[in-house]
Specification:
Blueprint lengths: L9 E5 L4 E2 L9 H11 L5 E4 L4 E4 L1 H9 L4 E7 L3 H17 L4 H9 L12 H11 L13 H7 L16 E4 L2 E3 L8 E3 L2 E4 L3 H8 L8 E4 L9 H5 L2 E4 L3 H14 L4 E5 L3
Parallel strand pairs: 2-4, 3-5, 9-11, 10-11
Antiparallel strand pairs: 1-5, 3-4, 6-9, 6-12, 7-8
Helix pairs in contact: 1-2, 4-5
């Protein structure tokens, strides 16, 4: 597979002379692209494998242009084999999947357009929903989930940085330690516990191996949970994606059992 491509030249070709790639797995929003083509025209070329004339970037732009009645389309032809063509198509699709917007910056950009969002792919309803997310109305529902600040306050956690700094992907071990904190069970062993600083849905491959025997899975624990009766009597796997709360959980544990935590893996 070639590591570099030659300099790129844009060619205007008959729209029927190039075809969508038969292996493209992406299902794009053609209507949104059609609106963009009507308002802006084609502002970027599609990319085509020269030997097969298969489109490897811009399949849905080609389809939208065809539906809009374009007779020609701007294209860049690249000399790649079938394997590299598929890889380029995959990474082009994947790169957009893993990208993220800064919600505040996005809202500011959309608001700068003066209320006319045509040709952006966004609607006024999208902007309203985004602004609501950024500035939620205070809830009057007594059963509503508290804000992060309220959760920290209820757990008696300083809003400052915890002593233990954690990062997404970290795995920590707490204990085991022997203690006499349960009157009916002197000499009780607490732990070992494992703290995984990861979202529950994405982090299961790392924490499931620790769920052996009667180990208890406790997602989204508060800082004190490890030193409650439950944490002092059962081995637990804590899954907490919030790095502040994870750090404070470690702080509360070491306040009771100094020097009994160790980092098993994750960020350096």
């Amino acid at each position: 597979m070639a590591s570099t491509l030659n300099s790129l030249q844009i060619e205007r070709v008959d729209i029927g002379s190039v075809v969508e790639h038969p292996d493209n797995a992406r299902r794009g929003n053609v209507d949104t692209i059609r609106e963009s083509l009507r308002l802006h025209g084609q502002y970027a070329p599609i990319v085509v494998q020269r030997s097969t004339r298969h489109i490897i970037k811009g399949n849905h732009t080609h389809r939208a242009a065809t539906l809009e009645g374009f007779e020609q389309i701007d294209a860049v032809f690249v000399d790649v084999d079938d394997d590299q063509a598929r890889r380029i198509m995959l990474v082009d699709n994947r790169a957009s999947d893993v990208a993220q917007d800064d919600p505040a910056a996005l809202a500011q950009l959309l608001q700068s357009l003066g209320g006319d969002l045509s040709g952006t792919g966004y609607s006024n309803d999208d902007l309203s929903a985004l602004l609501t997310t950024l500035n939620p109305e205070p809830s009057t529902d007594p059963y509503a989930r508290p804000s992060n600040g309220s959760v920290l306050a209820m757990n008696d956690v300083s809003l400052g940085e915890p002593t233990h700094q954690t990062h997404r992907g970290d795995v920590w071990q707490l204990g085991p330690v022997t203690h006499d904190l349960i009157d009916s069970q002197p000499g009780k062993v607490a732990g070992p516990h494992f703290l995984h600083v990861t979202p529950l849905a994405q982090g299961w491959p790392s924490f499931v191996p620790h769920l052996t025997n009667d180990v208890l899975l406790l997602p989204y624990p508060g800082p004190y949970l490890a030193v409650t009766l439950l944490g002092l009597s059962r081995s637990c796997v804590f899954v907490q994606p919030d790095t502040y709360l994870a750090g404070h959980l470690l702080d509360k544990w070491t306040a009771v059992f100094p020097g009994s935590v160790s980092k098993l893996g994750g960020a350096a």
